[in-house]
Specification:
Layout (H helix, E strand, L loop, with lengths): L4 E8 L5 H11 L7 E7 L4 E7 L2 H4 L2 H5 L5 E9 L12 E5 L2 E12 L2 H9 L10 H10 L5 H9 L3 E10 L3 E5 L8 E5 L2 E5 L3 H5 L3 E5 L4 E6 L2 E6 L8 E2 H7 L5 E2 L2 E2 H15 L6 E4 L5 H11 L7 E3 L12 H11 E3 L1 H4 L3 E6 L6 H12 L4 E6 L21 H4 L2 H8 L3 E4 L2 H8 L6 E2 L1 H4 L8
Parallel strand pairs: 14-23, 17-20, 20-21, 21-22
Antiparallel strand pairs: 1-4, 1-10, 2-3, 2-4, 5-6, 6-7, 7-8, 8-12, 9-10, 9-11, 12-13, 15-16, 18-19
Bound molecules: adenosine monophosphate.
Length: 451
Amino acid sequence: MGFHDECGVFGVYDHPEAANFTYLGLHSLQHRGQESAGIVATDGTSFFQHKGMGRVGDVFRPEDIKDLKGRSAIGHVRYSTSGKSTLKNAQPIAIEYSLGKLAVGHNGNLVNIDKKRRELVEHGSIFTSEIDTEILVHLIATSRKPTVVDRIRDALSQVNGAYSLAILTDKQLIAVRDPYGFRPLVLGSVQGSPVIASETCALELIDGEYVREIEPGEILVVDSKGMHSEHLEPAPRLAKCIFEHVYFARPDSHLFGRGVYETRKELGRQLARESHVPADVVIPVPDSGVPAALGYAGEAKIPYEMGLVRSHYVGRTFIEPRQSIRHFGVRLKLSPNRDLLQGRRVVVIDDSIVRGTTSRKIVNMIRAAGAKEVHMRISSPPTTHPCFYGIDTPTREELIGANMGTPEINRYLGSDTLAYLSMEGLHRAVGSDRKSFCDACFSGAYPIPVE
Ligand code: AMP
């Protein structure tokens, strides 16, 4: 099994501010990965690149951006769970091969690739990183096909999994989305120049316009002749990630044709319809629970309040690679609003429970602040299965929803009641027909079997 990456990609073609726009785009996609960031730019002849560990604002100094010359660029933000936080795994990966220069930024996760990697090594390939993206780069470089687009197609026909790709050559910007459509990828434009981004929120910051989604299975090629699309072999089904709507994407993005914020509010409304409980206040776990709590409060006609205050000066606690830091992080990040909680019956809304460690601490904190009752409401079903398609999740052993039923989890958390959103409610709120979304993290129904 390869790395479980959570990532964001961005690209712009033929604009004098290519590197600046990419830098800004990556800022907007920072929630998709905080471990490393990188940009590769081209002036049509050479590649210029800068990558580093950490957040976008820390990785790039003004002089680094100035050195990223040229009118086209791609960028990448990355987070991986496996503990190996090293620069060699940072993207985009840039190489020189028989057809010229190539850089690849990948959001997603390829599955069942150990054999492919072994084959490549047996044929003399040398790997410098542990990431699955490098396998793609080798397959493109060693393909016998005449053009880079043919080679990309050839390489992708040999792998399976989730991939939204931003690819840069010295002459082209290429966007690819896997035929299942697991991860999002959109086309936009800024002052007439084409832009690609994981999420629409990246277009907002650069005053760009949204054009359309890159379709599942589409290879979009942008070069001096304009734009054209080719298509990969269709997948047996579509599998758009439902968890992007639940948690991962930014609420101001439009995803798979729907506003994320409104979808999350609807998840909350649906939750209120399914598991209403008499209470005095509805509070979110900020920031992930905010839109669903607004929806819940509106539907249940219970006041919405800020019962927990979040410090914005610590990172996402989940994102810390070491367990010990994660535990401490909850206290660092969230503080109870005692005046509000004292003597109240409180409904607490969060989007998901993963290990249960955060929720347990939160319930504890709210009780210690004097709440009379604590009712946990979760705007998605129990997370029972790990994701192999690009969302970072722990193993099944670590997933509380895989190992305990709801009453047992309720006892573990120390809440008075606990209710999750139903699977039907989830699909209804997301506007899903059930066939075109992947809900494997909640159902175990993996669209691509994982070896
Ligand atoms: P836990 O204590 O492990 O149950 O953590 C639950 C919290 O993690 C919730 O507030 C979620 O919003 C958040 N969360 C869920 N999935 C992820 C993920 N893949 N990456 C980071 N945070 C997540």
